[in-house]
Protein backbone atom coordinates (compact mmCIF):
# COMPACT_ATOMS: atom_id res chain seq x y z
CA UNK A 1 0.00 0.00 0.00
CA UNK A 2 1.46 3.30 -1.08
CA UNK A 3 0.80 6.23 1.18
CA UNK A 4 -0.69 9.35 -0.29
CA UNK A 5 1.37 12.48 0.04
CA UNK A 6 0.73 14.77 2.93
CA UNK A 7 1.57 18.26 1.87
CA UNK A 8 0.03 21.09 3.93
CA UNK A 9 -2.88 21.20 1.48
CA UNK A 10 -3.71 17.51 1.68
CA UNK A 11 -3.04 16.89 5.36
CA UNK A 12 -6.59 16.73 6.63
CA UNK A 13 -7.37 19.61 8.91
CA UNK A 14 -10.57 18.18 10.31
CA UNK A 15 -12.19 14.78 10.74
CA UNK A 16 -8.84 13.02 10.47
CA UNK A 17 -10.59 9.72 11.22
CA UNK A 18 -12.27 10.06 7.83
CA UNK A 19 -8.96 10.38 6.00
CA UNK A 20 -7.40 7.57 4.05
CA UNK A 21 -3.78 7.30 3.05
CA UNK A 22 -3.84 4.31 0.80
CA UNK A 23 -3.20 4.91 -2.86
CA UNK A 24 -5.41 1.97 -3.85
CA UNK A 25 -8.31 3.70 -2.13
CA UNK A 26 -7.63 6.87 -4.13
CA UNK A 27 -7.72 4.83 -7.33
CA UNK A 28 -10.93 3.07 -6.24
CA UNK A 29 -12.74 6.36 -5.54
CA UNK A 30 -11.64 7.78 -8.88
CA UNK A 31 -12.40 4.64 -10.86
CA UNK A 32 -15.94 4.44 -9.46
CA UNK A 33 -16.81 7.99 -10.52
CA UNK A 34 -18.42 9.43 -13.62
CA UNK A 35 -17.68 13.14 -13.38
CA UNK A 36 -15.39 15.32 -11.32
CA UNK A 37 -15.63 18.91 -10.18
CA UNK A 38 -12.66 20.88 -11.48
CA UNK A 39 -11.61 23.95 -9.55
CA UNK A 40 -9.60 26.65 -11.32
CA UNK A 41 -8.89 30.31 -10.65
CA UNK A 42 -10.14 32.57 -13.43
CA UNK A 43 -9.63 36.33 -13.09
CA UNK A 44 -9.00 35.94 -9.38
CA UNK A 45 -12.18 33.97 -8.63
CA UNK A 46 -12.57 30.26 -8.05
CA UNK A 47 -14.59 28.48 -10.75
CA UNK A 48 -15.98 24.99 -10.17
CA UNK A 49 -16.85 23.08 -13.33
CA UNK A 50 -18.37 19.60 -13.60
CA UNK A 51 -16.54 17.62 -16.26
CA UNK A 52 -15.46 14.13 -17.29
CA UNK A 53 -12.10 12.61 -16.45
CA UNK A 54 -10.07 9.47 -16.82
CA UNK A 55 -7.17 7.84 -15.00
CA UNK A 56 -4.10 6.05 -16.31
CA UNK A 57 -1.85 4.89 -13.48
CA UNK A 58 -1.14 7.92 -11.36
CA UNK A 59 -2.18 10.48 -13.93
CA UNK A 60 -5.64 12.00 -14.22
CA UNK A 61 -6.78 13.33 -17.59
CA UNK A 62 -9.40 15.97 -18.29
CA UNK A 63 -10.28 17.47 -21.64
CA UNK A 64 -12.14 20.35 -23.13
CA UNK A 65 -12.56 22.49 -26.17
CA UNK A 66 -9.42 24.41 -26.99
CA UNK A 67 -11.59 27.53 -26.57
CA UNK A 68 -13.02 26.70 -23.13
CA UNK A 69 -12.60 29.34 -20.46
CA UNK A 70 -11.87 26.73 -17.81
CA UNK A 71 -8.84 25.52 -19.75
CA UNK A 72 -7.53 29.04 -20.18
CA UNK A 73 -6.29 29.10 -16.60
CA UNK A 74 -2.79 30.56 -16.47
CA UNK A 75 0.02 28.06 -17.22
CA UNK A 76 1.67 26.98 -14.00
CA UNK A 77 -1.43 27.59 -11.90
CA UNK A 78 -2.57 24.94 -9.48
CA UNK A 79 -5.95 23.33 -10.05
CA UNK A 80 -8.04 21.14 -7.76
CA UNK A 81 -10.05 18.13 -8.90
CA UNK A 82 -12.65 16.63 -6.57
CA UNK A 83 -14.59 13.40 -7.15
CA UNK A 84 -17.44 12.73 -4.73
CA UNK A 85 -19.75 9.75 -4.22
CA UNK A 86 -22.72 10.41 -1.97
CA UNK A 87 -23.61 7.06 -0.40
CA UNK A 88 -26.20 7.90 2.21
CA UNK A 89 -27.89 10.45 4.41
CA UNK A 90 -26.99 9.92 8.07
CA UNK A 91 -30.05 10.68 10.17
CA UNK A 92 -29.01 11.22 13.74
CA UNK A 93 -31.09 11.84 16.86
CA UNK A 94 -29.85 15.44 16.90
CA UNK A 95 -29.82 17.81 13.95
CA UNK A 96 -26.21 18.67 14.82
CA UNK A 97 -25.01 15.12 14.13
CA UNK A 98 -26.77 14.76 10.81
CA UNK A 99 -24.17 13.87 8.22
CA UNK A 100 -23.62 12.02 4.97
CA UNK A 101 -21.85 8.81 4.09
CA UNK A 102 -19.55 9.49 1.19
CA UNK A 103 -16.29 8.78 -0.55
CA UNK A 104 -14.34 11.69 -1.96
CA UNK A 105 -10.96 12.31 -3.52
CA UNK A 106 -9.30 15.68 -3.83
CA UNK A 107 -6.28 16.19 -6.07
CA UNK A 108 -4.08 19.26 -6.32
CA UNK A 109 -1.52 19.94 -8.98
CA UNK A 110 -0.27 22.04 -11.83
CA UNK A 111 -1.75 20.49 -14.97
CA UNK A 112 0.33 19.73 -17.99
CA UNK A 113 -1.06 20.42 -21.47
CA UNK A 114 -0.57 17.13 -23.29
CA UNK A 115 1.07 17.60 -26.69
CA UNK A 116 2.25 14.10 -27.57
CA UNK A 117 -0.37 12.67 -29.95
CA UNK A 118 -0.20 9.15 -28.53
CA UNK A 119 -0.71 10.42 -24.99
CA UNK A 120 -3.53 12.69 -26.17
CA UNK A 121 -5.29 9.67 -27.70
CA UNK A 122 -4.65 7.56 -24.59
CA UNK A 123 -5.97 10.33 -22.35
CA UNK A 124 -9.13 10.72 -24.43
CA UNK A 125 -9.61 6.95 -24.41
CA UNK A 126 -9.38 6.97 -20.60
CA UNK A 127 -11.90 9.83 -20.34
CA UNK A 128 -14.32 8.09 -22.72
CA UNK A 129 -13.99 4.72 -21.01
CA UNK A 130 -14.56 6.28 -17.58
CA UNK A 131 -18.01 7.52 -18.65
CA UNK A 132 -18.82 4.77 -21.09
CA UNK A 133 -16.71 1.60 -20.83
CA UNK A 134 -16.44 -0.20 -24.14
CA UNK A 135 -17.25 2.80 -26.29
CA UNK A 136 -13.68 3.63 -27.35
CA UNK A 137 -13.51 0.37 -29.30
CA UNK A 138 -17.11 0.60 -30.48
CA UNK A 139 -17.75 4.17 -31.64
CA UNK A 140 -16.00 6.11 -34.41
CA UNK A 141 -12.61 7.32 -33.18
CA UNK A 142 -11.62 11.00 -33.32
CA UNK A 143 -10.36 12.28 -36.64
CA UNK A 144 -7.62 14.84 -37.13
CA UNK A 145 -9.99 17.81 -37.09
CA UNK A 146 -11.64 16.65 -33.87
CA UNK A 147 -8.28 16.05 -32.23
CA UNK A 148 -7.19 19.59 -33.19
CA UNK A 149 -10.26 21.01 -31.44
CA UNK A 150 -9.61 19.10 -28.23
CA UNK A 151 -7.26 20.10 -25.43
CA UNK A 152 -6.11 17.34 -23.07
CA UNK A 153 -4.69 18.15 -19.66
CA UNK A 154 -2.75 15.73 -17.45
CA UNK A 155 -2.67 16.04 -13.67
CA UNK A 156 -0.39 13.98 -11.45
CA UNK A 157 -2.09 12.13 -8.61
CA UNK A 158 0.93 12.77 -6.41
CA UNK A 159 -0.77 15.32 -4.18
CA UNK A 160 -4.10 13.85 -3.20
CA UNK A 161 -6.30 13.02 -0.26
CA UNK A 162 -9.20 10.65 0.18
CA UNK A 163 -11.97 11.00 2.72
CA UNK A 164 -14.73 8.53 3.48
CA UNK A 165 -17.56 8.09 5.92
CA UNK A 166 -19.44 4.79 5.97
CA UNK A 167 -21.15 4.41 9.33
CA UNK A 168 -24.32 4.95 11.26
CA UNK A 169 -25.09 8.08 13.22
CA UNK A 170 -22.78 9.15 16.00
CA UNK A 171 -24.94 10.88 18.59
CA UNK A 172 -24.21 12.41 21.96
CA UNK A 173 -24.46 9.86 24.79
CA UNK A 174 -27.42 11.59 26.40
CA UNK A 175 -29.45 11.50 23.14
CA UNK A 176 -29.55 7.73 22.62
CA UNK A 177 -32.66 7.30 24.76
CA UNK A 178 -34.67 9.89 22.85
CA UNK A 179 -37.70 8.38 21.05
CA UNK A 180 -36.25 9.39 17.68
CA UNK A 181 -35.56 6.99 14.85
CA UNK A 182 -31.95 7.13 13.71
CA UNK A 183 -30.13 5.43 10.90
CA UNK A 184 -28.92 5.80 7.35
CA UNK A 185 -30.95 6.40 4.21
CA UNK A 186 -28.79 4.97 1.40
CA UNK A 187 -28.38 6.96 -1.82
CA UNK A 188 -28.17 4.59 -4.75
CA UNK A 189 -27.05 5.52 -8.24
CA UNK A 190 -28.17 3.09 -10.92
CA UNK A 191 -28.64 2.90 -14.67
CA UNK A 192 -31.96 3.36 -16.36
CA UNK A 193 -33.10 1.54 -19.51
CA UNK A 194 -31.00 2.59 -22.54
CA UNK A 195 -32.94 5.02 -24.76
CA UNK A 196 -32.26 4.41 -28.43
CA UNK A 197 -31.71 7.53 -30.53
CA UNK A 198 -34.87 7.98 -32.67
CA UNK A 199 -32.55 9.16 -35.43
CA UNK A 200 -31.07 5.68 -35.92
CA UNK A 201 -31.20 4.84 -39.63
CA UNK A 202 -30.80 1.10 -39.14
CA UNK A 203 -31.72 -1.54 -36.62
CA UNK A 204 -28.73 -2.01 -34.31
CA UNK A 205 -29.24 -3.78 -30.97
CA UNK A 206 -28.02 -2.15 -27.77
CA UNK A 207 -24.47 -3.48 -27.31
CA UNK A 208 -23.85 -5.68 -24.26
CA UNK A 209 -21.27 -3.25 -22.85
CA UNK A 210 -24.12 -0.73 -22.50
CA UNK A 211 -27.13 -2.91 -21.67
CA UNK A 212 -25.07 -4.97 -19.23
CA UNK A 213 -23.89 -2.11 -17.02
CA UNK B 1 -39.79 34.75 -15.12
CA UNK B 2 -36.86 36.64 -13.65
CA UNK B 3 -33.72 36.63 -15.73
CA UNK B 4 -30.51 35.54 -14.17
CA UNK B 5 -27.74 38.10 -14.12
CA UNK B 6 -25.18 38.06 -16.85
CA UNK B 7 -21.94 39.36 -15.47
CA UNK B 8 -18.77 38.47 -17.39
CA UNK B 9 -18.35 35.43 -15.15
CA UNK B 10 -21.83 34.02 -15.72
CA UNK B 11 -22.29 34.88 -19.37
CA UNK B 12 -21.79 31.47 -20.87
CA UNK B 13 -18.65 31.36 -22.93
CA UNK B 14 -19.43 28.12 -24.69
CA UNK B 15 -22.48 25.99 -25.47
CA UNK B 16 -24.79 28.95 -25.13
CA UNK B 17 -27.68 26.75 -26.25
CA UNK B 18 -27.31 24.88 -22.97
CA UNK B 19 -27.68 28.03 -20.89
CA UNK B 20 -30.85 28.98 -19.05
CA UNK B 21 -31.75 32.42 -17.83
CA UNK B 22 -34.84 31.71 -15.82
CA UNK B 23 -34.59 32.14 -12.08
CA UNK B 24 -37.19 29.40 -11.50
CA UNK B 25 -34.89 26.97 -13.27
CA UNK B 26 -32.02 27.99 -10.99
CA UNK B 27 -34.21 27.32 -7.97
CA UNK B 28 -35.34 23.98 -9.41
CA UNK B 29 -31.78 22.77 -9.97
CA UNK B 30 -30.76 23.82 -6.46
CA UNK B 31 -33.86 22.40 -4.79
CA UNK B 32 -33.37 19.01 -6.44
CA UNK B 33 -29.81 18.63 -5.16
CA UNK B 34 -28.33 17.03 -2.08
CA UNK B 35 -24.78 18.38 -1.99
CA UNK B 36 -22.89 21.15 -3.71
CA UNK B 37 -19.23 21.60 -4.58
CA UNK B 38 -17.89 24.72 -2.93
CA UNK B 39 -14.89 26.40 -4.55
CA UNK B 40 -12.71 28.69 -2.45
CA UNK B 41 -9.19 30.02 -2.79
CA UNK B 42 -6.93 28.93 0.07
CA UNK B 43 -3.30 30.07 0.07
CA UNK B 44 -3.54 30.92 -3.60
CA UNK B 45 -4.89 27.55 -4.73
CA UNK B 46 -8.44 26.60 -5.61
CA UNK B 47 -10.02 24.10 -3.20
CA UNK B 48 -13.19 22.22 -4.14
CA UNK B 49 -15.14 20.81 -1.20
CA UNK B 50 -18.33 18.73 -1.31
CA UNK B 51 -20.76 20.00 1.30
CA UNK B 52 -24.42 20.42 2.14
CA UNK B 53 -26.42 23.54 1.41
CA UNK B 54 -29.89 24.99 1.67
CA UNK B 55 -31.85 27.75 -0.06
CA UNK B 56 -34.22 30.38 1.28
CA UNK B 57 -35.54 32.62 -1.46
CA UNK B 58 -32.54 33.98 -3.30
CA UNK B 59 -30.01 33.16 -0.60
CA UNK B 60 -27.97 29.99 -0.42
CA UNK B 61 -26.68 28.81 2.95
CA UNK B 62 -23.70 26.61 3.68
CA UNK B 63 -22.30 25.72 7.07
CA UNK B 64 -19.26 24.24 8.65
CA UNK B 65 -17.30 23.93 11.82
CA UNK B 66 -15.97 27.27 13.00
CA UNK B 67 -12.52 25.66 12.69
CA UNK B 68 -12.88 24.39 9.10
CA UNK B 69 -10.18 25.46 6.68
CA UNK B 70 -12.67 25.94 3.87
CA UNK B 71 -14.50 28.59 5.88
CA UNK B 72 -11.29 30.43 6.69
CA UNK B 73 -11.17 31.92 3.21
CA UNK B 74 -10.30 35.60 3.41
CA UNK B 75 -13.28 37.90 4.16
CA UNK B 76 -14.43 39.59 1.01
CA UNK B 77 -13.16 36.81 -1.25
CA UNK B 78 -15.43 35.46 -3.94
CA UNK B 79 -16.50 31.84 -3.74
CA UNK B 80 -18.15 29.60 -6.31
CA UNK B 81 -20.85 27.04 -5.55
CA UNK B 82 -21.74 24.42 -8.14
CA UNK B 83 -24.62 21.96 -7.95
CA UNK B 84 -24.66 19.22 -10.59
CA UNK B 85 -27.17 16.53 -11.48
CA UNK B 86 -25.87 13.88 -13.85
CA UNK B 87 -28.91 12.58 -15.73
CA UNK B 88 -27.48 10.38 -18.45
CA UNK B 89 -24.55 9.29 -20.54
CA UNK B 90 -24.97 10.38 -24.15
CA UNK B 91 -23.59 7.65 -26.39
CA UNK B 92 -22.99 9.04 -29.84
CA UNK B 93 -21.85 7.36 -33.02
CA UNK B 94 -18.51 9.14 -32.71
CA UNK B 95 -16.36 9.32 -29.58
CA UNK B 96 -16.06 13.08 -30.14
CA UNK B 97 -19.80 13.63 -29.66
CA UNK B 98 -20.07 11.58 -26.49
CA UNK B 99 -21.56 13.79 -23.81
CA UNK B 100 -23.69 13.79 -20.70
CA UNK B 101 -27.19 14.95 -19.96
CA UNK B 102 -27.10 17.09 -16.87
CA UNK B 103 -28.47 20.06 -14.98
CA UNK B 104 -26.02 22.34 -13.23
CA UNK B 105 -26.08 25.63 -11.42
CA UNK B 106 -23.05 27.80 -10.73
CA UNK B 107 -23.21 30.68 -8.27
CA UNK B 108 -20.57 33.31 -7.63
CA UNK B 109 -20.50 35.72 -4.77
CA UNK B 110 -18.82 37.06 -1.68
CA UNK B 111 -20.30 35.11 1.22
CA UNK B 112 -21.60 36.82 4.32
CA UNK B 113 -20.91 35.28 7.73
CA UNK B 114 -24.35 35.10 9.32
CA UNK B 115 -24.37 36.51 12.86
CA UNK B 116 -28.08 37.04 13.53
CA UNK B 117 -29.20 34.04 15.61
CA UNK B 118 -32.60 33.76 13.93
CA UNK B 119 -31.04 33.75 10.49
CA UNK B 120 -28.40 31.25 11.64
CA UNK B 121 -31.18 28.91 12.80
CA UNK B 122 -33.17 29.43 9.61
CA UNK B 123 -30.08 28.75 7.51
CA UNK B 124 -29.30 25.54 9.39
CA UNK B 125 -32.93 24.46 9.05
CA UNK B 126 -32.70 24.98 5.29
CA UNK B 127 -29.46 22.99 5.07
CA UNK B 128 -30.92 20.15 7.16
CA UNK B 129 -34.19 20.07 5.22
CA UNK B 130 -32.32 20.03 1.89
CA UNK B 131 -30.61 16.75 2.81
CA UNK B 132 -33.35 15.32 4.97
CA UNK B 133 -36.78 16.92 4.61
CA UNK B 134 -38.83 16.63 7.77
CA UNK B 135 -35.89 16.15 10.11
CA UNK B 136 -35.73 19.71 11.45
CA UNK B 137 -39.10 19.21 13.15
CA UNK B 138 -38.34 15.60 14.11
CA UNK B 139 -34.80 15.45 15.51
CA UNK B 140 -33.35 17.29 18.51
CA UNK B 141 -32.65 20.91 17.60
CA UNK B 142 -29.20 22.46 18.09
CA UNK B 143 -28.38 23.66 21.58
CA UNK B 144 -26.34 26.74 22.43
CA UNK B 145 -23.02 24.90 22.48
CA UNK B 146 -23.69 23.31 19.08
CA UNK B 147 -24.71 26.66 17.61
CA UNK B 148 -21.49 28.22 18.92
CA UNK B 149 -19.45 25.54 17.10
CA UNK B 150 -21.23 26.13 13.79
CA UNK B 151 -20.47 28.82 11.23
CA UNK B 152 -23.21 29.69 8.75
CA UNK B 153 -22.43 31.48 5.50
CA UNK B 154 -24.98 33.18 3.26
CA UNK B 155 -24.46 33.60 -0.47
CA UNK B 156 -26.71 35.68 -2.68
CA UNK B 157 -28.06 33.93 -5.78
CA UNK B 158 -27.79 37.19 -7.70
CA UNK B 159 -24.85 36.10 -9.85
CA UNK B 160 -25.68 32.66 -11.14
CA UNK B 161 -25.94 30.59 -14.28
CA UNK B 162 -27.75 27.39 -15.11
CA UNK B 163 -26.77 24.90 -17.77
CA UNK B 164 -28.70 21.88 -18.91
CA UNK B 165 -28.50 19.20 -21.54
CA UNK B 166 -31.42 16.83 -21.98
CA UNK B 167 -31.29 15.34 -25.46
CA UNK B 168 -30.11 12.45 -27.55
CA UNK B 169 -26.77 12.35 -29.32
CA UNK B 170 -25.91 15.02 -31.83
CA UNK B 171 -23.71 13.38 -34.41
CA UNK B 172 -22.09 14.60 -37.60
CA UNK B 173 -24.37 14.17 -40.60
CA UNK B 174 -22.08 11.66 -42.28
CA UNK B 175 -22.04 9.39 -39.19
CA UNK B 176 -25.76 8.65 -38.98
CA UNK B 177 -25.53 5.69 -41.34
CA UNK B 178 -22.76 3.97 -39.39
CA UNK B 179 -23.88 0.61 -37.91
CA UNK B 180 -23.33 1.95 -34.39
CA UNK B 181 -26.00 2.01 -31.69
CA UNK B 182 -26.53 5.50 -30.33
CA UNK B 183 -28.69 6.79 -27.53
CA UNK B 184 -28.76 7.76 -23.90
CA UNK B 185 -28.04 5.63 -20.86
CA UNK B 186 -29.99 7.30 -18.03
CA UNK B 187 -28.31 7.76 -14.66
CA UNK B 188 -30.88 7.35 -11.91
CA UNK B 189 -30.37 8.35 -8.29
CA UNK B 190 -32.74 6.64 -5.89
CA UNK B 191 -33.10 5.86 -2.20
CA UNK B 192 -32.21 2.51 -0.69
CA UNK B 193 -34.02 0.87 2.21
CA UNK B 194 -33.53 2.87 5.44
CA UNK B 195 -30.97 1.18 7.72
CA UNK B 196 -31.95 1.47 11.37
CA UNK B 197 -29.09 2.34 13.74
CA UNK B 198 -28.28 -0.86 15.69
CA UNK B 199 -27.68 1.41 18.69
CA UNK B 200 -31.39 2.27 18.99
CA UNK B 201 -32.44 1.72 22.61
CA UNK B 202 -36.16 1.56 21.87
CA UNK B 203 -38.43 0.42 19.09
CA UNK B 204 -39.24 3.45 16.95
CA UNK B 205 -40.68 2.92 13.46
CA UNK B 206 -39.05 4.62 10.47
CA UNK B 207 -40.92 7.93 10.14
CA UNK B 208 -42.97 8.44 6.99
CA UNK B 209 -40.92 11.47 5.95
CA UNK B 210 -37.95 9.11 5.62
CA UNK B 211 -39.55 5.85 4.42
CA UNK B 212 -41.76 7.75 1.99
CA UNK B 213 -39.01 9.53 0.07
UniProtKB/TrEMBL annotation, chains A, B:
SUPFAM superfamilies: FMN-binding split barrel. This is Pyridoxamine 5'-phosphate oxidase family protein.
